[in-house]
Design a protein that fits this description.
By secondary structure, the protein is an all-alpha fold. Helices cover 67% and strands 0% of the residues. It folds into 4 domains: 31 residues, no CATH class; 110 residues, no CATH class; 218 residues, no CATH class; 134 residues. It is built from 32 helices and no strands. Helix 20 crosses helix 23, helix 27 packs parallel to helix 29 and helix 29 runs parallel beside helix 31. The longest helix has 26 residues. It starts with a helix and ends in an 18-residue tail after the last helix.
């Protein structure tokens, strides 16, 4: 027999059961082969007296013995699998596991035999602690490792971080890729953007579900995954790892896996924040709860701040906190209240600050809340409120009867201090960017043109980050009609986008996404100059080239053909108008 057949009989000899090799030997050394075969069949067949007389009956029907033995074998295996699963649930714990361990001891030598392997794997699956020696044998054999249940793999992984890392790594890469594909999606819409999906829907994603299943109830594996996420976040500064950290915990929460949820000190905080993210707003009641968790961090337990900061650094959390901050500022304008007098606003800033400081905190291992700059509260936020007032004043003024109306133009300048804040203060920059998203979503063209230039230089180039550009391009679809105007396009493209296209590939991609969506609204002359300016260079990546080609194809389809444009027929007679027949 070849290697395939050898595998079929693997381990039978150790149990004293004859296999193909034995038959071969018998036949080689005997004088009467037919008798030898008959004897082998009698010794190794199904030993039931009543069966002996029935077998010739099957022969008459032309049913091969192999088929008969195979069906008996399959039936017995099913019964055995059912029995193993039943043993795992009945009687006292020690007794049931003792039975399974004995069964594993007897059957393990057949683990490489394909027909018996499912039974051995089933026994191991139901054992909370497979003997170390057996685990090592499984781990050393690629095919066995692949075939064993996740319950057994967990036992292998928990003492083999490198092997577990190899299993988790492709999933984490896939997760980041999925997030980036969403941010660069060709579907641009203000209604369906990166933040549209509810947290519960996001947790149903393939990667989160697979990781949840791999972890099961195993705290050690959960800790390992968190360690991987921290390490990758430190190495790459990619905030999507923070999202996964929160999604994973909440996925285990959905399944009520208390073994893990009760030992993760961030569980209740994340649960409460998750509800805020679902509503895209932090209400007063939840604000109190969140504050209680932050104030409750005891001396000696400050390390939990590192984890909380990572939960707050999740873009979905930042989005919720920033939207809530803008809403609070508008409310304060109506109440004639200063930012420093609003405890709810101060809490939002505290959480934004903690989230934005996550990388520094985990990197430095200094676990204390970042100090809030007083000027953010006393100067920057009142300045933002004054912009809200500018809008109200201008809108009221537009509605006044004409004789009372002096020609009050919309303010076009921005205080230098505002630009400086956007460049030097991370929290101010984040809130400022969300304010600009807010006015764009309100179709406030005047305010948009007033602030667009402040985006060219921002803290750590935040205005050129994928999340901001994804949201901005979505909101700009609401200002579609303005794209026909020279002033608007010059400010948006020349003043902002093109200032970074050559040095930042992602900006190049976002501009092309926007034009693919709105090219039909842009004045032809402007479109032509943009097409030239956005032409990919040798260094451009595949994604940019692909988008540029798509745009070129779309523009080609819009152009009239040269024949139509140049040749006019010599005689253009007007078509005679045919009167509509009167109804009878």
């Amino acid at each position: 027999p070849g290697p395939g057949q050898a595998a079929m009989y693997a381990g039978l000899q150790e149990l004293g059961v004859a296999n193909g090799e034995d038959l071969k030997e018998t036949l080689t050394n005997c004088t009467e082969p037919l008798k030898a075969i008959e004897q082998f069949q009698t010794e190794n067949g199904v030993l039931l007296p009543s069966l002996q007389s029935a077998l010739p009956f099957l022969d008459l029907h032309g049913t091969p013995r192999l088929e008969f033995h195979q069906s008996v074998f399959d039936e017995l295996r099913e019964k055995l699998l059912e029995r193993v699963s039943a043993i795992a649930l009945e009687g006292k714990v020690e007794e049931r596991y003792k039975k399974l361990e004995d069964l594993l001891e007897k059957s393990f030598s057949l683990v490489k035999m394909p027909s018996i392997q499912p039974v051995v794997m089933c026994v191991m699956k139901h054992l909370p602690k497979v003997p170390e020696k057996k685990l090592k044998l499984v781990m050393a054999d690629k095919d066995l490792y692949k075939a064993c249940a996740v319950e057994v793999k967990r036992q292998i992984w928990q003492d083999n971080q490198a092997l577990f890392g190899d299993e988790v790594s492709p999933l984490l890469k896939q997760y980041i890729l999925e997030k980036e594909n969403t941010l660069f999606s060709n579907d641009i819409s203000v209604l369906h953007n990166f933040f549209s999906q509810s947290p519960k829907t996001r947790r149903q994603g393939e990667v989160v579900q697979k990781l949840t299943q791999m972890i099961g109830k195993n705290v050690k594996l959960y800790d390992m995954v968190l360690q991987f996420l921290r390490t990758l976040f430190l190495r790459t500064r990619n905030v999507h790892y923070c999202t996964l950290r929160a999604e994973l915990l909440m996925s285990l929460h959905d399944l009520e896996i208390s073994e893990i949820c009760t030992v993760d000190p961030c569980h209740k905080f994340t649960w409460c924040l998750d509800a805020c993210i679902r509503e895209k707003f932090v209400d007063n009641k939840r604000a109190r709860e969140l504050q209680g968790f932050l104030d409750g961090v005891k001396k000696g337990q400050e390390q939990v701040l590192g984890d909380l900061s990572m939960i707050l650094c999740d873009p979905f959390a930042i989005n919720t906190l920033a939207l809530s901050t803008i809403r609070h500022l508008q409310d304060l304008v109506g109440q004639d209240t200063l930012p420093r007098e609003s405890p709810d606003l101060l809490l939002l800033l505290r959480m934004l600050s903690l989230g934005q400081g996550a990388w520094d905190m985990i990197d430095s291992q200094v676990f204390k809340e970042p100090k809030m700059e007083a000027e953010l509260i006393t100067k920057f936020l009142p300045m933002l409120m004054s912009f809200v007032v500018d809008d109200h004043t201008f809108n009221v003024d537009q509605k006044l009867p004409s004789e009372e109306k002096g020609p009050i133009p919309y303010p076009s300048t921005v205080p230098e201090a505002f630009t400086k804040f956007l460049q030097e203060n991370r929290i101010a920059c984040e809130i400022g960017l969300y304010y600009i998203l807010h006015i764009t979503k309100q179709r406030n063209k005047n305010a948009f043109l007033r602030f667009i230039y402040t985006l060219v230089e921002t803290f750590s180039d935040l205005a050129f980050s994928d999340i901001f550009l994804h949201l901005l391009t979505g909101n700009l679809t609401l200002l579609g009609d303005e794209f026909a105007l020279e002033e608007f396009c010059t400010s948006l493209f020349d003043g902002f986008f093109l200032s970074a296209c050559s040095r930042k590939e992602n900006v190049h991609r976002h501009v092309l996404r926007l034009l693919l969506h709105l090219h039909h609204k842009v004045a032809p002359a402007k479109l032509e100059s943009l097409q030239k300016a956005l032409e990919p260079t040798k260094q451009s990546g595949e994604a940019v080239k692909e988008l540029y080609n798509q745009l070129t194809e779309k523009l080609e389809l819009r152009k009239p053909s040269p024949a139509e444009a140049t040749e006019t027929p010599p005689m253009e007679l007007p078509l005679p108008t045919v009167p509509t027949p009167a109804p009878r």
